[in-house]
Design a protein that fits this description.
Blueprint lengths: L22 H18 L2 H15 L2 E6 L5 H12 L4 E7 L2 H9 L7 E4 L2 H6 L4 E7 L7 H13 L1 E12 L3 H11 L12 H11 L3 H7 L5 E5 L3 E7 L6
Parallel strand pairs: 1-2, 1-4, 2-3, 4-5
Antiparallel strand pairs: 5-7, 6-7
Bound molecules: S-adenosylmethionine.
S-adenosylmethionine (SAM) binds next to helix 1, helix 3, strand 2 and helix 6.
Amino acid sequence: MSVDLRGRATHVRELMDDPQADEEMLGRTYQRFGAVNAVVSRPGRLYRQDIRPRAAARRIRILDIGAGGGDLCRLLVRRLRRDGLEADVTALDADERAIRWASAHDVGLGIRYRCALSSQLVEEGDRYDVVLSNHVLHHLDAGEFDAVLRDSQALTAPGGLVSHHDIARGRLAYTAFAGATWPLSRTLLAGSFIRVDGLRSIRRSYTARELAALAPSGWSVRSRLPARLELRWEAPRAGT
Ligand SMILES: C[S@@+](CC[C@H](N)C(=O)[O-])C[C@H]1O[C@@H](n2cnc3c(N)ncnc32)[C@H](O)[C@@H]1O
């Protein structure tokens, strides 16, 4: 029977969100996120279009909300270093298991790790040039979604950018992910939650139209290939 993708399957829970989840499988899941994201999330475009230009002007401050195993933070620091650019990168996650794993795999990149909600950083008066997330929006309930957007804006310095990335729910995304991960389920992805949670993530995700309907005034939704969404807000420059 084919999976119903007409609406968000918010009742479906991802295995990695279970506080009792097997720690070894969770660790393997964090470890595989980098390879999966390289294919599905294509972070190179975010780097080239939004991060590198800002980093050329100043030592850029980046916040990754829901950083998981920290693979996006590590990729950004490596690319910035390769281009001779400096950054202060913060990996934030509400799950202490993620922060523990990510900080143990920092490999000398100097990322700052915080186990907290974004509201705590707002209280502390933090400011960033780029606030981003990847595969987090679909995890959030309505209250958490509003809070993350509100906090993202509060945490963004004048002229800065908020860029939340996620999957666009759809038949093509579901079928392509199911087909691509099936042959890998006994090898590369064995002993991880990647395949089951990836399929559940697609079911929980938004379509572009659903996300646009939830986006507050001033935010925009962009559709990207392959089956990607970006929810974006740009902070006004100082004095405007
Ligand atoms: C699917 S993982 C994505 C990890 C990483 N961003 C990536 O793309 O590989 C989602 C992460 O978001 C975290 N998360 C969910 N809600 C959060 C919140 N309100 N604040 C911070 N982190 C949150 C979860 O703990 C989890 O580690």
